[in-house]
Every structure is written in C-alpha cells, then in structure tokens.
Amino acid sequence: MSSFTVAALEAVADTIVQNKELLTSLDAAIGDADHGINMARGFEAVRVKIRAAAPGTDISGLLKLTGMTLISTVGGASGPLYGTAFMRAAAAAQGKATLDPDGITQIWSAALQGIKDRGKASRGEKTMLDAMEPAYEAFVEAVKAEKSLVESLDAACEAAKEGIEYTKTIIATKGRASYLGERSLGHQDPGATSSYLMLAALTEFCRS
Ligand code: ADP
Ligand code: MG
Ligand code: MG
C-alpha cells in the first residue's frame, strides 16, 4: 500500500506539472497568473520528497509529507489550503494500512473541512470548493449506492467538472479574483480546475 500511495501521489503531481500552463493562464484572467507556477513548484517538490521517503512510510506519513511540502513550497492562497487538506487527510488516515471506499470518504471529508476551516469560504464563492465539495458529495452518494471505487470516483469527477462550469457563472467573493467583482464572471476558477485535475489523475490511477 505504501508504494501504491507513492505512485498515486506521483500521478497527481505529474498531472499538475503537465497542466502548469493551463492553470497559470486561467489565473492570468482573474488573478495574478501564478496558480500553475505555484502548484507545479509544490508538486515537483512533493515528487522528490515522496520518492525519497523511507520505504514503508505509511499512507498517513506520505500524506503528511505531501501537506508539509505544499505548505512550505507553494506560496499563494492555494499552498496553505491544499497543504492543510493533505495534513488533515494524513490525520484521518492514521492507522489505516489499506484504503476502502469508507476510508477514502473519511479522509476526503477531513481534507474538505480543512480547506473550509483554513479559507473561511463556502460553496458558491468561486473557489476550489466549488469543484471539491460537489465531487465529495457525489462520491459519498455513489459509495452508498454500492458503486465500485472507480465508478464512485468517476461520479465525483463528473461533479467536479460541473463545478468548474458553475464557477464561470458566479462572481468571486474570496481570494484575489474577488477584487474583480463582476469582471470575474465568465471565467472558470483556477483552483476548482486544479482540484478537478488532481481528482481525475487519481481516478485514472485507480482505473489502471
Ligand atoms: P494566489 O491567489 O495567492 O495567487 P493561487 O493563484 O495559487 O494563489 O490560487 C488561487 C486559487 O485559490 C483560486 O482559484 C481559488 O480556487 C483558491 N482560493 C483562494 N482563496 C480561497 C479561499 N479562501 N478558500 C478556498 N479557496 C480559495
Ligand atoms: Mg494566483
Ligand atoms: Mg499569487
């Protein structure tokens, strides 16, 4: 499970690095054009750290290493937010040697709450939460309906994608994009997009 977790985190890191330009150009429209740069810097560091982690580092330890690395390297609003999400995920993963859908639900719930606590935002403010929260809810619903892990993740991805579309229709009231007021309309949120990309990478990883 430890090498599985490393590989899953690597898949997430790879996707962020590959989408650096996209995330930066989205942030250029409604922010300060650095979301991709920030996130790629952070996940490049994560890749190095998790590969160098002691063999046998458990799921919780790897998530914690990821969170600490993001907090110390990403900068910007997204660093502490995603960093806190991974730190809370690590705490929720403590003692778990394997991950089943219920375990993933607990970990995801803790991560989501971490973002809310840290950013004091809620859904509808044009942030990463507009992708992350509906995705989480779709996952929970699918698990309850006894869908497989991959089916449940697919449902979550679909909801995250809808969440990205939704961010185009609302005005930002948190983060830098809020300075634009109505001019933030029509643009998709960079953080919602990075959330979707991470989730999609995790889903593809679990499918393979
Ligand atoms: P910065 O805005 O400091 O340059 P980034 O560009 O890396 O940081 O990240 C911007 C993203 O952070 C936004 O697209 C949004 O999704 C997210 N964000 C900003 N503020 C908050 C908040 N209070 N709560 C949740 N997400 C937020
Ligand atoms: Mg920015
Ligand atoms: Mg910035």
Automatic annotation (TrEMBL):
NCBIfam families: dha_L_ycgS. Pathway: Polyol metabolism; glycerol degradation. Residues 3-204 form the DhaL domain. It comes from Heliobacterium mobile (Heliobacillus mobilis). Coiled coil: none annotated. Homodimer. The dihydroxyacetone kinase complex is composed of a homodimer of DhaM, a homodimer of DhaK and the subunit DhaL. The lineage of its organism: Bacteria, Bacillati, Bacillota, Clostridia, Eubacteriales. This is phosphoenolpyruvate--glycerone phosphotransferase. The gene is dhaL. It catalyses: dihydroxyacetone + phosphoenolpyruvate = dihydroxyacetone phosphate + pyruvate.
